[in-house]
Amino acid sequence: MRKKTSLTIVERAMVLVPEFKSRAVKLEHQVVLRGQSASTLNNYIRRIALFVIHFEKLPEQVSEDEINEYLVALARDPKAPSRSSFKHMVYGLRYYYRLLGMNKKAIALPSLKQDTKLPIVLNQQELKMLFAV
């Protein structure tokens, strides 16, 4: 069995920017206190860690212009994992900034468009089959 030697994304961010560790702990405490899921914490913290690795500094030290440029590049990147990972980045940063009392910076992040889905409309034959059961 191979021994794990590489660091996780979060660990890499903590090595690169040591102050990130205290922010990650604070974020974890807030997620737990608010009763949010471990999945929410993991998604947010991984996305924020990627952000920290990219800029090599804490998110509060990054200007709004730099944030916007980063998010535009992320949204346009054809290799980006998915739309949901982009959403986790935006929501994670928003959560992080609000946690630090930086509401102005949190509000400056882009609003994300909700996908609208049309309802499925059944025809008469399908309705008869449905009610015949």
From TrEMBL:
<dbReference type="Pfam" id="PF13495">
    <property type="entry name" value="Phage_int_SAM_4"/>
</dbReference>
<feature type="domain" description="Integrase SAM-like N-terminal">
    <location>
        <begin position="31"/>
        <end position="99"/>
    </location>
</feature>
<dbReference type="GO" id="GO:0003677">
    <property type="term" value="F:DNA binding"/>
</dbReference>
<dbReference type="InterPro" id="IPR004107">
    <property type="entry name" value="Integrase_SAM-like_N"/>
</dbReference>
<dbReference type="GO" id="GO:0015074">
    <property type="term" value="P:DNA integration"/>
</dbReference>
<dbReference type="InterPro" id="IPR010998">
    <property type="entry name" value="Integrase_recombinase_N"/>
</dbReference>
<keyword id="KW-0238">DNA-binding</keyword>
<protein>
    <submittedName>
        <fullName>Phage integrase N-terminal SAM-like domain-containing protein</fullName>
    </submittedName>
</protein>
